Amino acid sequence: MITARGLRKKFRQNSGESFEAVKGIDLDVRKGEAFGLLGPNGAGKSSTMRMVASVSPISGGELRILGMDPAVDGPAIRGRLGVCPQEDNLDQELNVFDNLYIYGRYFGLPKQVVRERVVELLEFAKLTEKAKSKVEELSGGMKRRLTIARSLINRPDLLLLDEPTTGLDPQARHVLWDQLFRLKHAGVTLVLSTHYMDEAEQLCDRLVVMDKGVIVAEGAPLDLIRTHSTREVAELRFGAGEHADHAEVIGDLGERVEVLPDRLLVYTHDGEEVLAKTHERGLQPLATLVRRSTLEDVFLRLTGRTLVD
Known about the structure:
This protein has helices at 45-52, 70-78, 96-106, 111-124, 140-151, 170-185, 197-203, 221-228, 243-250, 271-280, 295-303; strands at residues 2-12, 18-29, 34-38, 60-65, 81-84, 158-162, 189-194, 206-211, 214-219, 232-237, 256-259, 264-268, 287-292. The chain is of the alpha/beta class.
C-alpha cells in the first residue's frame, strides 16, 4: 500500500536556509494492517503524512502509494485515500447529513450512491439521530466521528488519521477505537499518527518511532517493548532530593535505573523482588508500584523526556 525508500522532506525557512524535516526514511505498509507513526513534536510525522497523502511533494528518495507515483498520479491516489486531519474542518454552515453528502459529490459519485453511503456512515458513526443537526451543536466526540465518517465516503483503500482522538475524553476515545478496529477488520488499511501510547498499543499492528526526522525503532508494539524495555517496572518514591542518592544503593537491582524528580524507575523482570531487596538494604520508600512495561517506556527511552516545542 505504501513503499518509501530514502524519503526526504526539506523546507525553505524565512532566513533562506533549508530545514530537513524528514531525513531519509524507509517505510512499508501492508494491505489490511494498522500502521502507526509515533514521535514527539518536530519528529517529522506530519510531514511524512502529508507526503503520503500526496499533497506535499517529496524532496528526495522514492515514494509509491497504491503502486503509483504521487508526482505523476496525485489525483488518482487522492481519489482512493481517506484523510482525517488533526483538526476538524467540517462545514459549520451545513448540517451533519449535508457535510457528508456534499463531500461525497466532490468525488463525482452519483447522487443516489452518495445518499446511500451517507445513511450507512451515519449509522457507523452513531450519528443517525443527528443527521439534521448543525455541526456547532455536536460534542467534540461527535465532530470527530463525523470527520472520520466523511473520510470514508469514497470507500478508500487507505485511511490516513492524524492524531484521531486528540482532545477527546476517555469515553469518546474508546468509541472511536472500536470504530477504527471495525474498519481494519473490514479490510481498510489504516495509517495513524498519535501521541497516545495506549492508542498505538490498542490499534497498531506495527509502528515506527520517529525522532528528529529519522526512524529510531520499528516493529509490533509488544516486540518493541520486549526489545527496548523489561517485563516490569518498579516505581519507588522517596523524599524530595533523595532519589539520586538512593539510585546508587539499588542501581544493581535492575537492568536500568532512571532517576526522576519524584521517583525512581527500576527496569526489571521481577518488580516484587526489587521491592524486597530495596527493603533489605534498609531503604523505606514512601510509596511503591510494580507495573508492566508499556510502549510509553519505550517511547521515552528512545526519544527522551525533554519537552520539544
